[in-house]
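Example S7 (structure tokens).
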């Protein structure tokens, strides 16, 4: 199993119990949509996997590594195996597409536009390959703030892929996009996962979109899993 969550529980300091002992397994290469109403705990679940949010109890095991017990340095290494894609893209506005993408290799973004020229040639080539794949190779030198929403999300996807992850953690990737662009982005994420054998947890509140693109759907409600099955068996009350 690529990812195993056992008894994953999160209580925020405010007292909110966002996850109540969630058990979940994600096999290698499986793309899974996580659905549920606002406040169900979807975002908390995704963030507990890479410990952007610290779980209160329970465990997260990625490919044999117990993520929950890791110290800072080991956690940094483990996080490289988990690419994160955000709703608001989280690009650095005044850096170019190429610079944003290459920052995925480092896990942080440098201050000057010129630093990226010192990247190994194979990193730059890989960046070009991926940007070509998502239809953005003509925009490498454009600043992030000059891009459309769909283009920004494609940059966010490429940046995550530059880590060469085993798992993508995708938090509401289409929430800021129009319906047509949303479908394009979901299709792209799915195709890339298939091509590269990546697993993904895609947190998405749009049930129709989830059903259209993900074979496995997990429904979360008030911090508990209330549905886990194929998209075709999803019933309206989930
Ligand atoms: P979803 O992503 O499904 O909308 P969240 O994981 O964002 O759900 O939230 C689950 C619950 O945890 C909600 O009750 C929310 O108010 C609470 N919550 C989320 N983040 C925080 C936080 N940083 N501090 C306190 N409570 C939080
Ligand atoms: P928008 O301005 O609506 O955000 P996009 O930036 O998403 O538009 O798309 C701009 C153009 O790029 C569209 O014509 C779209 O069909 C095309 N496009 C979208 N995804 C891809 C892709 N994966 N590969 C190549 N071209 C794409």
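Recovered sequence:
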């Amino acid at each position: 199993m690529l990812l195993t969550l056992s008894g994953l529980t999160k209580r925020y300091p405010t007292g909110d119990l966002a996850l109540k002992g969630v058990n979940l397994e994600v096999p290698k290469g499986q793309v899974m949509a996580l659905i549920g109403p606002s406040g169900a705990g979807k975002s908390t679940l995704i963030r507990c996997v890479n410990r952007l949010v610290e779980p209160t109890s329970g465990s997260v095991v990625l490919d044999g590594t117990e993520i929950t017990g890791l110290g800072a340095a080991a956690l940094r290494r483990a996080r490289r195996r988990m690419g994160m894609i955000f709703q608001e893209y989280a690009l650095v506005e005044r850096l170019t597409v190429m610079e944003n993408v290459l920052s995925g290799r480092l896990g942080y973004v440098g201050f000057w536009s010129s630093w990226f020229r010192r990247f190994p040639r194979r990193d730059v080539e890989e960046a070009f390959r991926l940007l070509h794949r998502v239809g953005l190779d003509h925009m490498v030198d454009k600043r992030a703030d000059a891009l459309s929403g769909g283009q920004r999300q494609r940059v966010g996807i490429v940046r995550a892929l530059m880590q060469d992850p085993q798992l993508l953690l995708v938090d509401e990737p289409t929430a800021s996009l129009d319906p047509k662009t949303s479908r394009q982005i979901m299709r792209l994420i799915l195709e890339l996962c298939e091509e590269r054998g990546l697993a993904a947890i895609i947190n998405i509140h749009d049930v129709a979109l989830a059903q259209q693109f993900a074979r496995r759907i997990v429904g979360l409600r008030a911090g508990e899993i209330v549905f886990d099955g194929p998209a075709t068996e999803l019933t309206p009350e989930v």
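Notes on this example. The chain is about 30% helix and 25% strand.
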